Amino acid sequence: MGPKDRVTTRLVPLGVAVVVTVAALAQVSCSGCARRRLARPQVAATVFPVYDIVRRLAGDRLDVHLILAPGLDAHSYEPRPRDVATLADSSLIFAVGLELDGWAQDLARSAGAGEARVFEMGPLMDPILAPQGLIRTEPFIDGHFWLDPLRAERAVDVIVEALGALDPVGGPFYRGRGEELKRSFQALHEDIASRAARWSSRRIVSFHGSLFYFASRYDLEVVGVVEPVPGQEPTARQLAALLDLLRGPEPAVLFSEPQMDDVLADALAREAGVSAWDIDPMGGRPGTESYERLMRQVVAVMDQALR
Ligand SMILES: [Zn+2]
Hints:
Helix content: 40-55%
Largest sheet: 4 strands, parallel
CATH topology of the largest domain: Rossmann fold
Shape: globular
Bound molecules: zinc ion
Number of helices: 10
Number of domains: 2
CATH superfamily of the largest domain: Nitrogenase molybdenum iron protein domain
Oligomer: single chain
Number of strands: 10
């Protein structure tokens, strides 16, 4: 953690407290009057892949806000005061859950939105329990369900339902757009499946526990994870085990992620004499401005890394 991070950590709780106090005062001075009137209902999503689905379903019927700015790590995110303001106005907050964005619940409470308005989608997506022994002794659940396009299709259905409950008049509109999105995700899946069938390497080491859904859908095997607990560096023994996987007779392919510690990934790659292939599982950056583009970026890298 650099000096800049430390300042942020110290300032944020203070900022949140100030905003909450202002909100509380506003409520007292305005008891009985309606919430601030906004032209359209406001909804929010914690991470880009979910946000992209929600905004495409919402069209111009709802305003959709993204909480986690692209390029940041969801696991270690320190919410900012303006996130509290965004959530205070939101009727519904789409989150992943499964320990990926646990800060969303606290944020919603700070914003006076209440836990009831946070909709955790991960538990509905047939969560995958990472096998035990992958450098971490206790099992953990991967939260990155969207890296499987068929689960992303299921997410479309779930979000269509939720938006229809929020805005019943818009129900048919959301359903129509949902069908369109699912057709696009289905085509994406078929394309990935045909490419994945040609990959000759199938053993992978991911930087954090993000690739279990992708691997399970396209018949890859996650044999190791560098940081099963994001931000917690592997011990010397764990590093030795990872090096064995990368150098073994059937070497696994190493993937790094831009939101994570690239110094560690590069050091590991150098030591093993292999490449670290950078993939972005979160998206929302130049080149990954839609769910499909995010997935195509992952697959383009895998085409190179696993051929
Ligand atoms: Zn993650």
